[in-house]
Amino acid sequence: MGELISGAAAGAENVRRLRAYLDDLAAGGLALPVRQGRVNVSAVALACGFDRQVLYKNPTAKEMLAEAEAKLGLDRGDGEDAAEDEKPAVRTPDQRDRRIHKLEQENAALRAEAAGLRERLRRIRHVEEHMVETGRWVAPLPQSLGETGK
């Protein structure tokens, strides 16, 4: 399972998987899945077992998908209505990509906060050790040395 294959071999395998998926749809008389009036690339990629970027970057896969869209059409049976067909095709950023970006930003902020808290804990432990060893209180550090005054 962990064997490496060349980019060309991986591309050919992805095209083979896509062809098998599209053939299955055609054999079953099914259309391509739709999302916001266009082919749901994520659903196609998931069904084929590869990343959706393959359908954007692999020219053969991209062409096969376009041909299949013309030949098979789009599945409009899952709540899609005719009013959506009349909307102009406006490319909007994918909601999942926006959510991922937002979560990455929150994660970075939390990591920075955790690092700051670890540093503060290290300083507090150092002060506690000094107090235990000497039996004396330690005066608070001036704010110019990094203490927040809290």
Helices and strands, in N-to-C order?
A: HEEHHHHH
Number of domains: 2
Give average pLDDT, whole number. Answer: 79
**Arrangement of strands in the largest sheet:** 1-2
How large is the share of residues in beta strands?
A: under 5%
Class from helix and strand fractions: mainly alpha
Stretches where pLDDT falls below 50 for ≥5 residues? 78-86
How large is the radius of gyration? 28 Å
* Most strands sheet: 2 strands, antiparallel
End-to-end distance: 54 Å
The tally of beta strands, per DSSP, is: 2
Q: What is the helix fraction of residues, given as a range?
A: 55-70%
The total count of helices amounts to 6
Shape: rod-shaped
Task: Provide an overview of this structure.
Keywords: Coiled coil. Residues 73-98 are annotated as: Disordered. This is Transposase. It comes from Methylobacterium oryzae. Residues 100-127 form a coiled coil. This protein has 150 residues and is an all-alpha fold. It has 2 domains: 8-79, no CATH class; 94-150. The chain is 62% helix and 3% strand. It has helices spanning 7-28, 41-48, 54-57, 59-72, 82-86, 95-134, and strands at 34-35, 38-39. The chain has a two-stranded antiparallel ribbon. A hairpin with a 2-residue loop joins strand 1 and strand 2 (38-39). The protein is rod-shaped. It starts with 6 loop residues before the first helix and ends in a 16-residue tail after the last helix. The relative contact order is 0.09.
